[in-house]
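quick one, 352 residues, struct below
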Amino acid sequence: MSTALRPSGYFDTTYQQTLRIIYTPWQWIAWICFLLFLVIFPLFSSAYILTAAIRIGITIITVIGLNIVVGNTGLLNVGHAAFMAVGAYCSAMLMTKAGFNFFPALLAAGLAGSLAGLIFGAPSLRVKGFYVALATLAGHFIVIWALMEWFGGHTGHPAPRPRIFGFIFDSDISYYYLVGALTLFLALFARNILRSNVGRAFVAIRDHDIAAEILGVNLYRYKLYSFAIGCFYAGIAGALLGHFWSFTNIEAFPFGDAIWYLGMVIVGGMGSVLGSVFGAVFFIVVEEATLNVSPIITALFPSMSALGQMEAALKWLIFAVIIILFVIFEPNGMAHRWNLIKASFRLFPFNY
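---
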């Protein structure tokens, strides 16, 4: 009888088995049911929910890329929003001015974000910790200034909806399927990277860079790999966001978004692709709930409406409180709690 089906638990007897993403038949069934739900989801959802789902998919791509840099490699990046802007501008300009098709423009957007990440991630080869954050902070404002001065950032650029083999993704349903397919592919791609030699080198650098270098890990190479891969995801996400709104502008990528992306990494779970998914979904759902609750609070307390921008202020306040609570009570994030819940079911009725 296969050891993977023993009632006492699941055991790995080879290294190949430890690298599996899906272990049991029940997990296969759960994945198939989940994918079927994602396919039929647009058929019974409203336009409002569908828009939120598209934003969730794009945000998941963004946070996965940031998590590779911050969670897996331990390099603090606060310029992620600017790298998204690079991807958005690159894709929009290539499609409108150079006549590129969508997928070549999307790939170029990812590569442009990757190149920008390499440039401003290079200081991480000499410094670490807070100083890397300062380097990427400077990179954010340098990139935004360059886009405004040299690439028409003041007025922005139209970003037409993708066209593939004559089919235009001009409806929210069709764009949902496009974003969903890319999100699933990029999530699996990131998961495969993190369980490879490259991913293990990232973790070694994060845990102790000097020990990793002694063991033969090339810090120069793998730190640049981390920024290149993470910012590639940012460029892809920025391009998808620009084409979703059919226009790209600097105001769509404020510095505050980069901070909240870091919050999503913390809340979801650092160093985990699943944590990136949890963090993105949680924050977008909370944001939409806040926007719906704000009119009620304003009606109950009319004096607060005079302050202006009640919805935005309440959203930032709730986000900040959530991050503080997670840092204090669940510093390992939602992915860690999810793993504990799964382990408790696997070990039931034993509590050890």
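The first strand starts at residue 157 and ends at 158.
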